[in-house]
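Appendix C: a fully annotated inverse folding record. The material below is reproduced so that readers can follow the format used throughout the book. The structure is listed first as tokens, followed by the designed sequence.
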């Protein structure tokens, strides 16, 4: 009849219900703490919690710890699907009581709605709380919540005949499994909502583009499974995408051939090995594969430059400067981007089929795309995902991709073999790069604080940190136009939503680098006497 404004709890004839909203579960002083002390027995949480790798552990721990310390029943519902942005909401609904899980919802699914049920005894909550004497003392001091009294009950006498639910052990996905499911669901949502006919992927024979192809293949697996289990909405969507009203997807490989076109864009700098790896993977996942050569387009572009300037740049391997070599490499990457969009728009037209394709990116800043499903995933996690796909989907072509050195193949071959690797170009390993990136992005470190953090961990750390920040500041502005990528964790290069620091820096970092050099010089002064003392001690020991 009357309802107070603000926080309140619902008092029924048999229990008391309180509600949290989404992130309140994650705050240092969550409402369920005081609600529970005030006698609330059932907590609900209507959540919009997006997927992040390894986040399920934190979700489950928060709920189980909340009900372990305070007793009670916790009902967590979570949004599912893509919100038209970089985020994917992964469901993961649950029902918990007194620190145990009684029902687990699926973490990744193409179903729009999922309902969980469990039969629990309110007396178990009351007896559990009665055993915690410290809780009872704290409850005597809590400020009471306004109660909205309602004249109904959640239980009835006949409930005595209902068998109670038993606790279950939570089944977690590994990070590799999360990658195989989350970004694949995101791709499906993006494809059906954009009303395009499929994807176009430049397939280079490397780990990044190979992983992207595997995500589309995983998406096809999930679509076939959803249709197999009677999901009529997914069936209607896939029929619209392939433009065939009677189509029923049963084989992921056959569906992949309809929705994925892959393309190996060779140049004079490409090796036979990468061409073979790309072709083998395309054949095994069933994609419609195209092979072409970009040399005529590259020579045409460079011909325009030479005609205007009278100059012809050459690679460093042929005696050119680093500026010339970098420009020649970038022309190849950007020509590939233009060709990718051309084929995405017209390749189905050339086959007499309607529609256009979305260009998939695979993390390279110089090669733009429509969406990038792996842009927020670290190299370490990505390689684990590729290994999983090789075993689970039986794709042996991925073995040779995993063991091959990462290379852009933009510089001339040496005796027919690849002479360029990513790690040599960067001057750091991918393992080191991951450490730098996480310290910069998640720990919010600049050059000096990163140097201090790594000083006793690595050799030549001063030069490495300065090199990283010099290169980072030169390229930071590219992040402002980065292809929209699946947000898999906080370690993401996307600055539009998750990193609001400047994109224009002084690339010399004069103050920070000077602080680093000062510390290096002081360290040398400290270590030198210690080394001398050790040598004298060793001589004395030998003589003795």
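Designed amino acids, in order:
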């Amino acid at each position: 009849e009357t309802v107070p404004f603000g926080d309140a709890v619902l008092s029924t004839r048999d229990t008391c219900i309180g509600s949290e909203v989404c992130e309140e579960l994650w705050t240092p002083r969550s409402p369920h703490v005081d609600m529970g002390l005030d006698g609330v027995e059932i907590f609900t949480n209507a959540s919009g919690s997006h997927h992040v790798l390894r986040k399920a552990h934190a979700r489950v721990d928060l709920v189980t710890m909340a009900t372990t310390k305070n007793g009670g029943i916790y009902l967590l519902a979570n949004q599912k699907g893509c919100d038209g942005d970089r985020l994917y909401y992964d469901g993961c609904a649950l029902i918990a009581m007194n620190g145990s899980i009684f029902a687990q919802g699926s973490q990744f699914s193409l179903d729009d709605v999922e309902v969980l049920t469990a039969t629990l005894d309110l007396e178990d909550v009351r007896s559990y709380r009665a055993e915690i004497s410290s809780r009872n003392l704290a409850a005597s001091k809590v400020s009471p919540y306004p109660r909205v009294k309602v004249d109904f009950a959640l239980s009835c006498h006949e409930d005595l005949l209902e068998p109670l639910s038993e606790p279950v052990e939570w089944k977690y996905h590994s990070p590799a499994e999360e990658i195989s499911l989350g970004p694949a669901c995101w791709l499906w949502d993006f494809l059906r909502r954009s009303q395009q006919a499929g994807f176009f992927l430049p397939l280079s024979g490397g780990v990044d583009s190979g992983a992207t192809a595997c995500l589309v293949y995983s998406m096809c697996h999930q679509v076939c499974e959803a249709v197999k289990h009677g999901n009529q909405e997914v069936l209607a969507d896939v029929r619209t995408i392939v433009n065939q009203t009677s189509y029923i997807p049963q084989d992921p490989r056959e569906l992949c051939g309809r929705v994925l076109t892959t393309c190996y864009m060779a140049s004079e700098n490409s090796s036979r090995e990468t061409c073979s790896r790309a072709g083998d993977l395309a054949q095994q996942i069933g994609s419609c594969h195209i092979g072409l050569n970009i040399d005529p387009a590259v020579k045409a572009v460079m011909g325009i430059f030479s005609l205007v300037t009278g100059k012809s740049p050459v690679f460093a391997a042929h005696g050119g400067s680093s500026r010339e070599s970098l420009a020649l490499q970038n022309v190849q990457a950007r020509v590939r981007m233009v060709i990718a969009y051309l084929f995405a728009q017209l390749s189905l037209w050339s086959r007499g089929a309607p529609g256009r394709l979305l260009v998939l990116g695979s993390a390279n800043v110089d090669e733009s795309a429509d969406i990038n499903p792996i842009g927020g995933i670290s190299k370490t996690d990505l390689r684990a995902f590729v290994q999983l796909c090789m075993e689970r989907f039986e794709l042996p072509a991925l073995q040779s991709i995993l063991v091959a050195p990462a290379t852009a193949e933009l510089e001339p071959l040496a005796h027919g073999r690849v002479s360029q690797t990513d790690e040599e170009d960067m001057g750091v390993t991918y393992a080191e790069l991951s450490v730098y990136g996480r310290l910069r992005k998640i720990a919010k470190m600049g050059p000096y604080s990163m140097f201090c953090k790594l000083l006793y961990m690595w050799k030549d750390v001063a030069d490495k940190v300065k090199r990283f920040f010099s290169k980072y500041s030169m390229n930071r502005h590219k992040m402002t136009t980065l292809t929209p990528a699946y947000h898999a964790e906080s370690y993401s290069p996307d600055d539009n939503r998750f990193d609001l620091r400047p994109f224009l820096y002084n690339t010399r970092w004069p103050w920070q680098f000077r602080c680093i050099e000062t510390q290096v010089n002081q360290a040398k002064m400290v270590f030198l006497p210690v080394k001398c003392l050790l040598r004298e001690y060793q001589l004395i020991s030998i003589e003795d």
